[in-house]
Amino acid sequence: MMERPTAPNPQHRIVIVGAGFGGLEAVSNLRNVDAAITIIDQRNHHLFQPLLYQVATSTLATSEIAWPIRHLLHKYKNVKTLLGSVEGVDTAARTVLTADGEAIPYDTLVLATGARHAYFGHDDWEPFAPGLKTLEDATTIRRRILTAFEMAERDPDPARRAEYLTFVIIGGGPTGVEIAGTIADLARDTLKGDFRVIDPATARVVLIEGGSRVLAAFKEDMSSYAKAALETLGVTVHLGNPVTECHVDGVEFGGKSLRAKTIIWAAGVQASPAAKWLGAPADRAGRVVVNPDLTVPDHPEIFVIGDTATVGNGDKGMVPGIAPAAKQQGVHIAKTIKARLAGDQSSRPFVYHHAGDLATIGKRAAVTDFGWIKLKGYLAWWLWGLAHIYFLIGLRNRLAVALSWLWISVSGARSARLITQRDAAEAESE
Ligand SMILES: Cc1cc2nc3c(=O)[nH]c(=O)nc-3n(C[C@H](O)[C@H](O)[C@H](O)COP(=O)(O)OP(=O)(O)OC[C@H]3O[C@@H](n4cnc5c(N)ncnc54)[C@H](O)[C@@H]3O)c2cc1C
Fold this sequence. Notes:
Elements: E1 13-17, H1 21-29, E2 36-41, E3 45-47, H2 52-56, E4 66-68, H3 69-72, E5 79-83, E6 86-90, E7 95-98, E8 103-105, E9 108-111, E10 115-117, H4 135-154, H5 158-164, E11 166-170, H6 174-190, E12 204-209, H7 220-232, E13 235-239, E14 243-247, E15 250-253, E16 256-259, E17 262-265, E18 269-271, H8 274-278, E19 288-289, E20 295-296, E21 299-304, E22 309-310, H9 323-341, E23 357-361, E24 365-369, E25 374-377, H10 378-391, H11 395-411, H12 424-429
Parallel strand pairs: 1-2, 1-9, 2-5, 9-21, 11-12, 11-17, 12-13, 19-22
Antiparallel strand pairs: 3-4, 6-7, 7-8, 10-18, 14-15, 15-16, 20-21, 23-24, 24-25
Helix pairs in contact: 1-9, 4-5
Flavin-adenine dinucleotide (FAD) binds at residues 17-23, 40-43, 49-50, 52-53, 85-86, 112-114, 132-133, 174-175, 272, 306-308, 321-324, 326.
């Protein structure tokens, strides 16, 4: 009896590293090609990062914004999913090198390994000011926020209690604004009546932005609205002075010290080390400077996409490091790879289409700018919510998230208020 082939075309091997927005879009657009595709990710789940702050602030559960990659791809018969961390690329031998010593051969390679937060040369700040990128980061921040209220309830010293009830967010981009607004909602609304000694509504939420406005990538009137909306929620916004020190007792900025037990880092990104793996040119944030068709200079067989790459967008500046850009790049390179497999080797420059900018401020306000329509306030919040629900994966998750938001909107109650896995740094700071 003849054995069935395990892959339709074992001659051409496509390896995709990273099953984030870019990698997942690439693989799903290659699902019918006559090639053997391997997708490798260091995590077993695809993460919807735009809602990560909602896990950090007890709004959503981890499983509502992350899904097993293996299951997402289980119907694609030409795709093999591997759990593994990539540590290098041997461009001469055309192999991807994993942390456990495996060398995975490729004919076409796609690197879509994203970015992480960066501390502008102050990596020692990370234990005091965790950033938000992974589910673990989100549950760490959630734990620190909730623990701070618990410690304040128990501490008889008013000065220390005030430190526990001070929450500092560094960085006034969408993530910083969203976290600040939601912590303010949590303190004034969700936790109301749950404590006997402290009044959670007295918590200070302080947003520190080094630049001259929050949401700097948005139009100026949107930034002003977001600042005013944050202040209405009780958030103190400091502009124009970057943080110069972060330590166990708080932060320093603009010549001032602010004592706080909870500090959250929402400033700066550093690309994954793909440029080092390839020995390719990179920008200051470590992003590979790719050709207009998203290939690596001198390596037409290697594509780099999403937050790991930097590429111009005609006269409209650089392509931004956001999810829609990564997804569009995933679609683009899938088309290029398909064309090449069909014999068309021509170079196809990537063109990015910007749909708009969105950010929420607490549970009742947002700013949305789609060019043709600009909204601020409650209506914008609904639009923001609908857009995010649309992009979630699976009907069950869409329903679960919509129900959670509806419930919070009506009652203020957040069901994901769980403190799990206290770490050593936290124990030390208490
Ligand atoms: C908190 C937060 C909020 C955000 N909010 C928004 C928003 O509201 N709107 C928006 O458009 N964008 C938002 N972004 C940005 C958006 O998430 C990114 O632009 C997008 O995820 C980039 O997609 P990507 O495919 O390049 O990388 P990612 O989606 O980050 O995927 C990278 C993948 O590569 C894997 N990986 C990394 N290194 C390795 C390795 N060495 N070996 C194996 N696998 C590896 C990772 O595990 C991950 O699965 C936000 C980002 C964050 C962190």
